[in-house]
Amino acid sequence: MPSPIEMLNEKIRKLLEEKGWTKLTEIQEKAIPEIMAGKNVIITAPTGYGKTEAALLPILSMMSSSNVEPVALLYITPMRALINDLYLRISWWAERLGFRVARKHGDVSQSERSKRLRKAPHILITTPESLEIDLDWATRFREYYRNLRWVIVDEVHEIVGTKRGVQLALLLSRLRRYAGDFQLVLISATVGDPMKVLEVFSYGSKRERSVVSVARRKKIEIVIDVIGNDRNYWRRAAEKIAKYLEPITLVFTNSKYASERLHEELVKLGVKDVLVHHASLSPEEREEAEKALREGKVTAVICTKTLELGIDVGDVKKVILFRPPSTVFSLVQRLGRSGHRHDIEVLNGVIIANDAVEALYAAALTKAAVEGRVEEPRIPEKPLDVLVKELVGMALQGEVNIDEAYEIFKSTYHYRNLTREELDEVVKLLIDNGILQESGPGRVKVGQLFYKIWRFEKTSDRRAWWMKSFSSFFSTIGEKSTYSVRTEDGRIVGELDASYVYKLYPGAAIRLGGRTWVIVAIDELAAKIIVREEKATTAIVPVWRGLGPEASHTALEALDKVLKEVYERGIDAITWVKLSEDARREVEKFIEEYRVSKKPLPSRDRVIIEQVGDELIILGLMGEAAARTLGYALLYAARSYTSSIRTSYYGLSIRITPGFNPLEVLSQIKPDDIENLALEAIMKTPYYLNTLRDIRLAFGQISKMGPEDNLVKLEAARQALQEFFDVTEAKRILKLVHEGHVSTHTAGAASPLARLLISMPEEKLWKVDIEKELAEALKGMAFTVEELASMTGLPEKIVEAKLREMRKPGSPYRVFQFIDVDTGDWRWALEEDVEEIVGLEEFRDSFKPLKLNEHFVLMVRGVNSEDFAHVLISARDVVEKREEFLRQVPFNEIYELKVLPITDDSKAGIPRYYYVSRRTLPYVVLNAIAVIQRIRSLDYY
Question: What range(s) does the Helicase ATP-binding domain occupy (predicted)?
Answer without folding.
Answer: 1-285, 32-209
